[in-house]
Amino acid sequence: xxxxxxxxxxxxxxxxxxxxxxxxxxxxxxxxxxxxxxxxxxxxxxxxxxxxxxxxxxxxxxxxxxxxxxxxxxxxxxxxxxxxxxxxxxxxxxxxxxxxxxxxxxxxxxxxxxxxxxxxxxxxxxxxxxxxxxxxxxxxxxxxxxxxxxxxxxxxxxxxxxxxxxxxxxxxxxxxxxxxxxxxxxxxxxxxxxxxxxxxxxxxxxxxxxxxxxxxxxxxxxxxxxxxxxxxxxxxxxxxxxxxxxxxxxxxxxxxxxxxxxxxxxxxxxxxxxxxxxxxxxxxxxxxxxxxxxxxxxxxxxxxxxxxxxxxxxxxxxxx
Length: 320
What we know:
By secondary structure, the protein is mainly β.
């Protein structure tokens, strides 16, 4: 008799300075920051960002170069301890998820959120909210990127074939690059500016724009089939329609709707995340998908200009 067990391991890498697009410091009236914010991700414990604490609240907003799957955050103090604060992950859709909360009056050397359910993030917001007159220093923020590993383990008895009836899947941090896309078989549909490469350059400062007509979008065709399991879209300067649908076509030509419109009033949103493709035990819906192309399309027509700055397609490594 065989028994299957699903294991999940989070292997994590850290956000560092090259992963950061911009840091915005917003003090309260009368308050002031000492430092630029670059100190937070330079991996140097001798540099720090200090807030004088004359008045609260004050905020530190970090914007990543591209949507990134994150699963843990820690904050380290400096010359002054860290004080009351709330650390929130900014989802690719603009939603804030509080992952670390320290009450006003807190004084400690550092704090750690612990592991949380991975979030496709566009940035991090730290809200300093302490008792007026107390300065706080931050010498580093660690934002851990997630590499999600999934394995199927079979426990066997003697003389039973130990070949798993399902393959082992390892989802690494690898993302589809422009070099893996066929330019002749891919297209921007009705785009008014930009090019396909700008959607895969890991730079949210570059983007493609559409006018908001029915059928606007893009087709991404791979040079060879790729095993993929999650797709994220960053909406750029204008945002993208919530009516966007993302369809993955597998190697047999079967379409899989991995991100759909929920029927809410059409509007522009900061981004979209498919989440991990749903596991279906049998048939064409199984996750991950051995894909030959991805279609991103607005079949409703938002009626106004919209943009995408980054398309993140997570690849999967299959092991047996």
